[in-house]
Amino acid sequence: SCGNDLEDPKPKIVVFASNNIMEAVNQYRLIRNLIQIQYSTYGYIRNVLNRFFLMNRSDRNFEYGIQRDQIGKDTLNHRTIMKYMINQHLSNLKKSQKKWFDPLILISRTERSINLNLGTFW
């Protein structure tokens, strides 16, 4: 029965711990995938912004960050502001999810240390 004090508790504890680790690792992977989607969305927004600002420009060099006139400089400033706003948004998003990220970093380290320990045994 569950209340039997004579039972060896160690196997139970190991199973319980491994289940928790696997659950946490799965959550870590899920959130990591969500972060990747988030960043790919940011990349998409950046590409759209680039296309928008390059649309009426005949000077292709602008794509490589070469500004030769005031229009180029103004557009660069506008792009920089937009980029800053997007970065701020992502930064705030990360801060709001900090309570999720902290344990995930720990799990990531645990995963690595487990791998390292396994390496020492072989």
Automatic annotation (TrEMBL):
InterPro entries per record: Ycf2_N (IPR056777)
Pfam families per UniProt: Ycf2
Taxonomic lineage from the root: Eukaryota, Viridiplantae, Streptophyta, Embryophyta, Tracheophyta
Protein name: Ycf2 N-terminal domain-containing protein
Residues in Ycf2 N-terminal domain copies: 1-116
